[in-house]
Amino acid sequence: MSIDPRADRPVYQQIADVLRDAIVKGELVAGQRLPSERDLMERYGAARETVRRAIRVLMAEGRVDSQRGVGVFVRDLGPPIRRMSMDRFARRHRDAGKAAFAAEAEREGKSWRAELLELGEVEAPTDVASRLGLGEAARAFVRRRRIWMEDYPMSLADSYFPLDIAEGTAIMRENSGPGGVYARIEEQGLLLTRFEEELQARMPTPDEAHSLQLAPGVPVLDLVRTAYADDRAVEVLVSVAAADKHIFHYAFPAE
What is the rounded CA–CA span in Å between residue 207 and residue 56? Predict the structure, then answer.
């Protein structure tokens, strides 16, 4: 891709386009050092500040990291996970003793783990209480986790349950058992019938960026999922997912 100083698109954005294209195509791989500022200046006949602006564009996109005194390197984004909406909560996975994320990671040949951050009874957030059909200041049981795939933090996931659903079950234990919490719900004779999800993008808070090891400029996805057994909401998941590590796949009939 050549640089055209007469084009409407600024030269620094054109340089960023060339470097981004090389990263996407794998010509520049994770951990590889980008050409130096001087090399880029000579290659594209650009001023130092123009080259620096191009690099800042890529840094804001979370594609590269700058190491002071060393250079700029292609950032290792880690392996993304494809979330298959039509298959994630299929009962056959629970029957096989696999929770949803475990089934997805296995399908893609990747390892995963859930780091437990909190387990206990809490006052349900207002929105969660409403979705669960609970009153104001109602109590719920929460499982707070950070989900890892390989060595990369993928998401923060808080699952809220009505107390009568969680009490006396492995939902209240660190290890919820084969098939995960949904298997424990169905063991109570509550057949899961549907799930509703809402997905919204935003920029992370400083704490979220730290917990998910996000580069500057990388957004997160707020995912709120409600699980129903017949007409009763039995779980609300509030998840904050690293946007650069997730692909959400949806398939549905046209009629």
Answer: 23
pLDDT at 248 over 80: yes
Q: Rounded to an integer, what distance in angstroms lies between the CA atom of residue 28 and that of residue 21? A: 9
| DSSP secondary structure letter of residue 59 | H
Instruction: Give the bridge partners for 232, in sequence order.
Output: 229
Q: pLDDT averaged over the chain?
A: 89
CA 130/CA 94 separation, integer angstroms: 27
Q: Are residues 212 and 128 in the same domain?
A: yes
Instruction: Please report, in angstroms and rounded to a whole number, the separation of the first and last CA atoms in the chain.
Output: 43
Looking at the structure, tell me whether residues 119 and 70 fall in a common domain. no
What DSSP character marks residue 34?
P
Do the beta carbons of residue 53 and residue 220 sit within 8 Å? no
Cβ count near 154 (within 10 Å): 23
CA dist 24 to 17, 88, 172, Å? Answer: 10, 28, 43
- Give the chain's domain count: 2
16 and 31 within one domain: yes
At what angle are helices 11-24 and 48-60 packed, to 10 degrees? 50
Predicted confidence (pLDDT) per residue in 171-204, tens digit: 999 999 998 999 999 999 999 999 999 999 999 9
pTM of the model: 0.77
Please give the Cα distance from 186 to 138 (Å, whole number). 24
CA-based nearest residue to 105, from 252, 246, 251: 246
Neighbours of 175 (CB within 10 A): 9
Distance between CA atoms of residues 252 and 255, nearest Å: 9
